[in-house]
Amino acid sequence: MKKIVLILALALATVTSYAQYGDMFHVQQNNRPPQQHGNRPTQPGNQMQRPPQPGGPGQLGPHGPGQYGPHGPGQGRNQEEIRCLEDWQMLWNGNHVRLINGRVYIYDRHNDSVLWGDEISLLSNGSYKVNRNGNWRIYDYEGVTTSIWGHEILYWWNGCYCVRVNDIWRVYKPDGDTLGVWSREYIELLWNGCYLYSINGRYYVSDPSGDRISGLWGDIIDLMDNGLFRCSRNGRIYFYDIQGNERR
């Protein structure tokens, strides 16, 4: 009889310990910090893309970040811009935002006014993109206006701007001079610094200085990972290097 009682007591103790361990393991699992899921880098593409447009005219195009434009993946990536949307929003340059009477104001750290607009974004180069009465203009970090303006303005990683005035897109250098690149469709900055654009249904490529690469055109143009351009025209495929030499 004593043996039976001892066996039952040991069994009860084992069950109790297991239950306590299970509760402890459950608590530890629930107390684990959530896993961080970083953004995977987007593979470089090579075709026409229009960048993201999070909010009204002059922001970024209709496709989201990393999305494909009318031809497929592209990499005319825009530098990150910070939209000034909140009252007393602090900016990385030390200035802050005030929302007053439906307008956006930028003040410096001494509370002196820098500039105002209907919409304002701080670009990664320290300049501001400002919308007033439906038109966008670039202002420098001190709030001084520049010659760059349009109905849409996109800022690129190479420091240039893609600007639309009415239905014409052009590329502006940081100093406000234009490159010899224009199109009635969005112009794409490729990963090698060249520009891909369309005129009258054909696609062309200009080098980083804005000069069209002679002989390089097609119904579709892809920039390959090896730096060659793959041109499809009239049902045939041609390959060109950045100097416009055909590669066979």
Strand order of the largest sheet: 1-5-6-7-8
Termini distance?
96 Å
Residue-averaged pLDDT: 78
Order of secondary-structure elements: HEEEEEEEEEEEEEEEEEEE
- Structural class assignment: mainly beta
The radius of gyration over CA amounts to 28 Å
Percentage of residues assigned to helices: 10-25%
Strand content: 35-45%
Q: Which descriptor suits the 3D outline?
A: elongated
What ranges have pLDDT less than 50 throughout 5 or more consecutive residues? 2-7, 15-78
**Number of DSSP strand runs:** 19
Main sheet record:
5 strands, antiparallel
Number of helices: 1
Concise structural overview:
This protein is mainly beta and 248 residues long. Helix content is 12%, strand content 36%.
Could you characterize the architecture of this molecule?
This protein is mainly beta. A hairpin with a 5-residue loop joins β11 (168-172) and β12 (178-183). The strands form 5 sheets. A 5-stranded antiparallel beta sheet has the order 1-5-6-7-8, with no helix packed on it. Strands 9-10-11-12 form a 4-stranded antiparallel beta sheet, with no helix packed on it. A 4-stranded antiparallel beta sheet has the order 13-14-15-16, with no helix packed on it. Mean pLDDT is 78; it is low at 2-7 and 15-78. The chain has one helix at residues 2-30; strands spanning 82-83, 96-100, 103-107, 113-117, 119-122, 128-132, 135-139, 145-150, 152-155, 161-165, 168-172, 178-183, 188-189, 195-199, 202-206, 212-218, 220-223, 229-233, 236-240. It has 1 helix and 19 strands.
